[in-house]
């Protein structure tokens, strides 16, 4: 069995959380399958579905605001940053579930830009995508996108996410119990129908929208979007009634195959290119450093070896920690509102490592020693004349 990941992204209020709740219950009732559920929204008050991993267990959003003096969005980004420092542990934990689960479903913050455009959002997405076949479900509030201009803006956002994440994407028109997604399908396949919608919109808003600039911009963009539409699967669902979830899961299966046949190779190629570039950059900066230190080629070769040796010994913080607790700690039951789901929780950060993410001597007792050893092995010894000069200077 191969685990695949579905990351739900969408504008605030598009219905991501309700969609996750329905998807979770749909898996259980219709597919007789239990999905592995992750909540990455640190600011949500109540999560109405059972979570296996909840960012709120590790990071207290209110405390992040207080501690760092941040506003709501800054605190979401900072919370994600803190969480992303431990993403390797989360991935390792999820990997151990490979035999038991088929799907991991992930809810993201409603403030879409906090996740999509932040470094941590990229790290989290990338970590999942490089370990499991990963699909983006872009959730759209259908009734609110009946205006062609709003529709176009939303599609451009989806387009930018597709090109940023380089992952297969399913456009999910949610709330079809209120408004069917047919109009959107038509706009996505028939350029003239979309032009007509724009013209109608222009006529009805003539007084408010005097200049035709916006509409001509939209016209040209819609041509560009044709290419984007061709890469998408489109489904209409109602998270209220459960309508359309069959098609959604079918689309997920198709996209997983697409991931395996196309995206995976493409990602690996990009990764190889990145690694080669990084290697070149490191070599260049190392030779620059050696030159600055006045070392000749032979010694620089030795130093390179030494550096490589040191690098191979360096562990990431979480590796050190892992030896101690393997990523599992007791969940903090009292502090959350959704106690009924708490028993499923599997992952929080260790208590002394919460929030500030500060590396203390207590948490990592040998870190200081290792830094010292690395420093001593790398540092250039001061010549005796320099030492004398320094001593003279101190005596003065
Ligand atoms: N009619 C209808 N309403 C829905 C549907 N899905 C969600 N809603 C409503 O849309 C509103 C927003 O839903 P949420 O699930 O909270 O949306 P969200 O995207 O998670 O919101 P944020 O996390 O705040 O960004 C709520 O009032 C839901 O009840 C649906 O399929 N049909």
Automatic annotation (TrEMBL):
Keywords: Cytoplasm, GTP-binding, Hydrolase, Nucleotide-binding, Phosphoprotein. One of its GO terms (molecular function) is GTP binding. It is found in: Cytoplasm; Nucleus. Residues 316-338 have a biased composition (Acidic residues). Small GTPase required for proper nuclear import of RNA polymerase II (RNAPII). May act at an RNAP assembly step prior to nuclear import. Binds to RNA polymerase II. This is GPN-loop GTPase. It comes from Arxiozyma heterogenica. The lineage of its organism: Eukaryota, Fungi, Dikarya, Ascomycota, Saccharomycotina.
